[in-house]
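User: You have something folded?
Assistant:
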Amino acid sequence: MPGPPSSPEPAELALTFDDGPGPVTDALLDVLSRHGALATFFSVGVQIADCERQLARAAREGHEIGVHGWVHEDHRDDPRARAAAAARTADLLTEVCGVRPRHFRPPYGATSPELEAAIAARGLRTVLWDVDPRDWEDPGPAAVHARTLADLTPGAVVLLHERPGTVEAVDTLLGELAGWRAVTIP
């Protein structure tokens, strides 16, 4: 397990969750709350309906809410139209959460200079990641935990997804990382 740097300040890591909101959002929020951790949730626009309460709770508890597009598809095919749809998601998230999203994560991490420029023109900054434990493969909580620890360094942005196994992996991870602090995207 990586140790925190020798600095008196705690090492920081940014836990990010893609593909929500959904059935495990409340469980993730419960785990984060129990550990005093913050995270960034990248939301898909078409999934917001019926999940407004979870998103409002996340914002109220200090988590950052970001944009993962209106739909979960490769956005490079039509950057301007996809950026407009991302802005539509940001508008809806602003209405639900009371805070305007600042960050965008392209589905699959598939980006291009044209997409990033179109997203920036809509007031969003594209954010990718440093650590990918491939939890979307559903390898089980132990594998997600081990894969995350294997690549974790201070300041890392960890790509996670709203999956049942990820909830348990994050709970274990946060319980072990004494001297670390989970924060939103800087």
Q: What stands out?
A: The two ends are 24 Å apart (CA to CA). The mean pLDDT is 95. The chain has one domain: 11-183. The first strand starts at residue 11 and ends at 20.
